[in-house]
Amino acid sequence: MQTGPNTRLSTQAMAFVLAGGRGSRLKELTDRRAKPAVYFGGKARIIDFALSNALNSGIRKMAIATQYKAHSLIRHCQRGWGFFRAERNEYLDILPASQRVSESQWYLGTADAVTQNIDIVDSYGIKYVVVLAGDHVYKMDYEIMLRQHCETQADVTIGCLTVPRMEATAFGVMHVDADLRITDFLEKPADPPSIPGDPDHALASMGIYVFNWDLLRDLLIRDAADPNSSHDFGNDIIPQIVKHGKAMAHRFSDSCVKSGLETEPYWRDVGTLDAFWQANIDLTDFVPKLDIYDNAWPIWTYSEVLPPAKFIHNTDGRRGFAVSSLVAADCIVSGSEVSNSLLFTGCRTHSFSSLDCVVALPQVVVNRKAELSRCILDRGVIVPEGLVVGQDPEEDAKWFRRTESGIVLVTQDMLDARAAQLG
């Protein structure tokens, strides 16, 4: 396989997306769905960002490893990502943990998820594997990272965020030399090493790795035979390469896709209720930190055939309007006030209700005179008439999931339990 100056390396690469995570810090939002399948941004799912980045980068071969409560994720990928054509050498395979190695063994770790599918990766006939987490929100051109990987002749190239040094204690941190070669990989260090020439910042792992497939294949086979291994990229595979091979860091700022509106590289782990709410609400800003209106780098997803949003009633005290908000298709804002909020597809808000800083997932119904602020409404929730959320912390915590910062998660099960107790 020849690599010349005009060859797009993405045509020789596949994306292996790790999408098996439960996302337990999202609490009830992941009771019925895996974290990568959680809704985001009005109509998309979190996994759409990793898949869209790969597609926009020119990668046409992808595999998605699923494990925890994968049905909604698999259904979304079948419906929204079913446009790959094998006759054009395009593939998107969904790889559920299916006891392919033994009758008792599911995916034991991130590396094992690839190991159990070595034969499938072999069948793609590719040279490079881009390993991705399926649960982060960002825009990135992987072709740029692949180029660096080849130019530096690295064994692994790791995507890295530049973060304030003491914030890096929550990440895997790269200790690098002046050429960005990784000399040490530290998992959640108490005293993170700084970037050479930049004492206030550190390089934190994004969980994005580029490997030459032939090398990774050998490493995975050896790792699978090691009874002491946790079969994880961050704990086992990467430290081995840092110690015995050549591991390079790739700065996210070098390949982050910005439309011109974004002023700085945007990457978010929306793995907590606070982070999930904030990242969605951020999209309602006058100039959002993440531009999802960039047609040059679209976020692909399952697009349903739906009617436009509608706003009705126009009398004082009963005016249907939304300001500083995102309102998706098939929403009807009927005589209610919506501000700084994000309504996913198919929501209904009825007369005299108000929503402020609300993230409402698909098919939510807000009945009359409800007053909602700083909350997340799970899919299909039917908010009863007159419910007040976001004004009384004690009352919120009594019935719903309330975070320390005051964000309230409301699910239908919580509302049903409340109704049963109140009679």
From TrEMBL:
Keyword Transferase listed? The answer is: yes
What would be the name of the gene that encodes this protein?
Answer: glgC
Binding site residues for alpha-D-glucose 1-phosphate: Y107, G172, E187, K188, S205
Q: What is this protein called?
A: Glucose-1-phosphate adenylyltransferase
One Pfam family from the UniProt entry?
Answer: NTP_transferase
The feature of type site (Could play a key role in the communication between the regulatory and the substrate sites) is located at Q67, W106
Name the PROSITE patterns on file. ADP_GLC_PYROPHOSPH_1, ADP_GLC_PYROPHOSPH_2, ADP_GLC_PYROPHOSPH_3
As for family, the record states: Belongs to the bacterial/plant glucose-1-phosphate adenylyltransferase family.
